[in-house]
Model the fold of this input.
Amino acid sequence: MPGEDDRGLSDEELDLYGYVSSSKRRVSVITTLKDNPRTPKQIAENTDIRLNHVSNVLSELADESLVKCVNPDRKRGRVYKLTNTANRVAEKVIQNE
Done:
């Protein structure tokens, strides 16, 4: 199919793969969220990234439509999960680690 590589990623997904891969923090957050939705605190504990940096990365990833907050009305205990596109990107990131 035009615009897709042999792994089934579209050009847009490959662009997002490059975006994620260019930051160790983004890679860590994406791979941590791959199997389970988590709170920023849980992500920070699993990745050894400071909470404020996790929050910044989540905001960056949300701007790229890679993560979604499932309960945005909460002030505390927000839970984030990967979008379908991010799951495909995460598989390529994990494969190339």
Notes: The first strand starts at residue 67 and ends at 69. The two ends are 26 Å apart (CA to CA). Residues 44 and 51 are 5 Å apart (CA to CA).
